[in-house]
Design brief:
alpha+beta, 3 helices, globular, HIT family, subunit A, 5-stranded antiparallel β-sheet, about 150 residues
Length: about 150
């Protein structure tokens, strides 16, 4: 299934222009049209998936495998690259703007201007333990077969 009007689906199908750097049976990678830095790539599944909830795990593993390889490649590309960020936004609250799963892979260097502005603070162990219980419960729910 493809997303009607989805620009990433159009790129995957060859109906929209994309500067491709990788293609395989389940994943395509291309240059981001609005790059954070030169060399900014997007790795997308061929099959339309709005978010992680819709993405098959095997395809998700291939997305990350390709991103890992491309991150290593950026350091050998001749582009300015002192580090690499991998960034995936899942949902509007996480700043996802194109609702087709995509993993950003972009080179970093001193003074490139990119930052994540958050209220970082050390958390109390009790708060961390409570969050861990909630995550483990979510894992159990994910692994429990749902009735049809």
């Amino acid at each position: 299934m493809t997303g009607s009007g989805c620009v990433f689906c159009a790129i995957v199908r060859g109906q929209a222009v994309g500067s491709l750097v990788h293609e395989d049976d389940s994943v395509v990678a291309f240059m981001d049209l609005q790059p954070v830095t030169p060399g900014h790539l997007l790795v997308v599944p061929r099959a339309h998936a709005v978010g992680l909830q819709d993405l098959e795990e095997e395809v998700g593993m291939q997305v990350w495998k390709v991103a890992h390889r491309l991150g290593r490649t950026l350091r050998r590309s001749g582009l300015k690259c002192e580090g690499v960020n991998l960034f995936l936004a899942d949902g509007e609250a996480a700043f996802q703007e194109v609702f087709h799963v995509h993993l950003h892979v972009f080179p970093r260097f001193a003074g490139d201007g990119f930052k994540i502005d958050a209220h970082w603070r050390e958390r109390d162990r009790h708060e961390l333990d409570e969050a861990a219980v909630a995550v483990r419960a979510g894992l159990c729910a994910l692994e429990t077969p749902q009735p049809d």
